[in-house]
Input
Amino acid sequence: MAAPPRHSSMMATNAGAPQSGANDRQQVTQQSLTPQPTQGLRVPSNRKTIYDRHLNRSRNAESSRASFAYLFGEMVTYAQRRVTGIQDLEKRLNEQGYPLGLRLLDLLFYRSTSTSSSALSSSSTSSSPPNRPLRIITLLHLIHGPLWRLLFQRSADALEHSVSPDTPNEYMITDNDPLVNTYISVPREMSMLNCAAFVAGIIEGVCDGCGFEAKVSAHNQPTEMWPSRTVFLVRFGDSVMEREKVLERNGVK
Amino acid sequence: MSTTKASRIGEEIWKTRIDKVNAELVTLTYGTIVAQLCQDYDSDYKQVNQQLDKMGYNIGLRLIEDFLAKSGVGRCANFRDTADMIAKVGFKIFLNVAPTVTNWASDNNQFSLIFDENPLADFVELPDDGRAQDELWFSNILCGVLRGALEMVQMQIEAHFVSDVLRGDDTTEMRVSLVRYIEDEMPPEEE
Output
């Protein structure tokens, strides 16, 4: 009931039959392509397009960690040449991660339905999976668990709520040893920089995509044991906090 | 060295000596890089191709060290060996694919790599703007990687894509030509 309109429209596309998600998409494009064969994108005659591949095809595929490190390194180097300071650089990395979050969200939900529907959803408002989180905690668990596992093959290390009464809208997700920073050496004069801003952008995309307006930033919080420990600070907007109160009163989980 | 032997070496190294990540993380990261370039260059796809090639070159310069350390292979006897080594060992251990080497020129200095699988292009559809499918080589970074890596082992090559399933072609094919063997050890060009 309190879900933003975006939810319902996205749910509608998926609601049909859980296992035919890919087919739905295929039909959509065929419909849009066939009436005007002269327009639109060309496709290979053997139909090797994204619409003909199962979305779970690459689910368990592996690549080398080195390739990721090279690509991410180039991405940071390239971004660095086009910015004026650390904040600017982090903002840029954040913006690059953001669209990824929006898309990963759909992928996560698609996969949660095609396997076990109980893995993600603890919300009980709708009978047909996938259930999008309505409450902050459900959303954060989705990020801490399934999202992290999809990206890094393990869960994040901690999830905390701000203890300060002034900032009830702040939550912290901790990664003791973020993969993205493993091969990045930060010059001394830029010690504030945390390239996990890219991951912060991904988180922000997931939150926004779910209808939880938020700002997410990455901060260095090294400990003796975990020198590259990073805390992702998630700050939800006022509208989210107000809705949260209403949902709380109505007993929505 | 035969192609089969190279494949065996590649498989073996991939299984035993390579730290892995989820392939989708690599795919998605690369996707954001290309998307960002298209945005920065205002969809001037020629410039995007160039920039991707440059990034690849930078990667190649460093990647060769990694390749030699992990594979422990020695010098190739000829360019045909080099081709197998690139396709069956190099691509295998860095991207977990093994493109087919084919279409040799009669002088043995030019060949094609056919990619049945291209992890960089999973989940990808080019923009439907009437130009991207004619101008953008989505996986162009790979050309730069080969150019950079081979330059570090005294081979000047030229590489470019000639077809791509993302453009509506039936195959994804890269053409690689040996320009010359570099005789003197020169410091690599800065880019």
The mean pLDDT of chain B is 94. Chain B touches chain A through 43 residues (CB under 8 Å). The first strand of chain B starts at residue 20 and ends at 22. Chain B is about 50% helix and 15% strand.
